[in-house]
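Notes from hallway chat w/ T.B., transcribed later so I don't forget. T.B. wanted the structure written out for a chain they're using in a teaching module, and asked if we could keep both sequence and structure tokens in one place. Agreed to drop them here.
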Amino acid sequence: LKGHEGETFKAVVTDFVDHGVRAQLADMPVVANVKASGLRQGDDLRLKLVSADPGQRSIVFEPATPA
């Protein structure tokens, strides 16, 4: 996903983690923890890619505006 910073992606909430949720991107095999609240398992959401660093195996998403 390097080079796609700022883009938004469809995702679904799969689980809950400290300070947020775990979400699976709809169109690719990517799972990430996201700081978000007020969501339930199975909820659809849009995520904005903040940063991606393949060398560190790090990816950061934030909630985007509502789908």
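Follow-up for T.B.: The chain has a mean pLDDT of 94. Might be a good example for the class.
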